[in-house]
Amino acid sequence: MVLKLVGSFPVQPDRVWCAAPHPHLPLVATASTDRAVRIYSLRDFSLVSTIEGGHKRSIRSLSWKPNAKGESVLATGSFDSSTGIWHRDERGAHGDGEQQPESNSEEREEEEEWRFAVVLDGHDSEVKSVAWSAGGSFLATCSRDKTVWIWEDMGNENYETIAVLQDHTQDVKMVAWHPEEELLASSSYDDTVRLYKEDTDDWVCCAVLTGHTSTVWSISFENNGHQSRLVSASDDQTARVWCRKPKVGEESPSQPPSIIKGATDETENWEEQSVLPKIHTRTIYSVDWSKKTGLIATAGGDGQIVVYKEVDVTRDGEPSEFGSEQSKEWEIIAQVPAAHGVYEINSVNWCPKWDKQGTKVDGELLLSTGDDGIVNIFELNL
Predict the structure, then answer these.
(1) What strands lie across the sheet with 184-188, from one edge to the other?
(2) Residues 6+ apart with CB under 8 A from 10
(3) Range of 252's domain?
(4) For residue 278, what are the contacts with CB-CB under 8 A and spacing of at least 6?
(5) CA distance linking residue 342 with residue 297, whole number of Å
(6) CATH code at 135?
(7) Which of 17, 108, 132, 354 is the most exposed place for a label (fewest CB within 10 A)?
(8) Is the CB of residue 101 less than 8 Å from the CB of residue 137?
(9) N- to C-terminal Cα distance for the chain?
(10) Cβ(215)–Cβ(235) under 8 Å?
């Protein structure tokens, strides 16, 4: 397999920290050191809009709210210690999430009207990551101040702090929600990943994942209804897959349990399942688990992008055949050295593929952001 460069968004004047695909429109938002959010089209890779004026320092992270009705809602986390909530009406959007044809980039930018609606204050230092829950009811933020905050959307642009979690002992690098449950994960400079769920009226830490020997920079959940797994990436140059095990006396469910008010406070049982083949020579800053194909992508300080696939193997390491005893292993199926030249890569994200008419098509793209101010767009070819 070959990871082929198929395009790039127009270059930005400074480092690009991350990119986030819109949940149902052919758009991508990027966070930059120059305090701006830029919105790009996935139809022709053009710049659609530049959002400025909300933050005083670099925008480190952003996240689209899922299930926002009739509008797009974007959360931004900044080194100025604040989190911003932006709104834009989806004028001209079809009910199926596709936009009407637009004549050119200039007209699109004029039509974009983003409003800086809410500022969430509370962190004492840089906000490193923001993430909406799958249902859109909760927003999680984390910071260099060692805390994870959970905010509840109360409606009418009103947000309430419902939890300030202080379980980590060092800078918290990233937060991520389970795609099907109200289960939150965070990764930290203290070398751990922690998981949280709601117990009655409090959010509690229900599991601590230990195994990395240095900072855990990035985490991503698998989207699989039959089991819950998480991948983490670290300064120790490894990526590790963790799996939730059934409680004692409990069989593995066909669907994951819902985390709801009144849930039991029993500690969840998570264990390290595998370490991905080690190929990175410097810090892995980003990892993303494709919700469509199950592939995992990593990137980091060595400028490489690596894609991994889980395969069935027999005890002797050969591909499995019918009737043979088998297990699963991860193998590297694609690799791009120097994907941003001599520059480090800050993030990789899987992304849907759209045609020029704004219709989602088969296939998947991989976005990478770098210190060179460029967002590259790759496609995996068989």
Answers:
(1) 172-177, 184-188, 193-199, 202-209
(2) 40, 46, 47
(3) 11-297
(4) 237, 238
(5) 20
(6) 2.130.10.10
(7) 108
(8) no
(9) 5
(10) yes
Strand partners of residue 20? 29
Please give the pLDDT value at position 265. 43
For the chain (382 residues), the mean pLDDT of every run of 10, in chain order, is: 96 97 96 96 96 93 92 96 93 43 44 84 97 96 98 94 98 97 97 95 95 98 88 98 80 43 60 97 98 96 98 70 67 98 98 95 97 97 78
Query: Residue 101 gets which letter from DSSP?
Result: P
Q: Which has the closest alpha carbon to 24: 58, 75, 66?
A: 66
Residue 342 lies in a domain: no
The alpha carbons of the chain give a radius of gyration, in whole angstroms, of 20
pLDDT of residue 69: 84
Domain count, the chain: 1
**In degrees rounded to 5, what are phi and psi of residue 51?**
-110, 120
Residue 120 to residues 75, 76, 83, 161, 202, Cα–Cα distance (Å): 10, 10, 5, 9, 20
SS3 235: coil
| pLDDT of res. 224 | 80
Residue 305: inside a domain, yes or no? no
Rounded to whole angstroms, how far apart are CA atoms 69 and 85?
15
H or E element: which one contains 107?
A: helix 105-111
Place of tokens 């834009």: 88
Rounded (10°) CA dihedral 95, 99, 100, 106: 150
Q: Which residues contact 102 (CB under 8 A, 6 or more apart)?
A: 108, 111
- Residue 217 falls inside a structural domain: yes
* 14: amino acid identity, one letter: D
What pLDDT does residue 320 have? 54
Q: Give the integer Cα–Cα distance in Å for 171 and 188.
A: 6
Structure letter (DSSP) for residue 340: T
Closest CA relative to residue 38, chosen from 4, 73, 11: 11
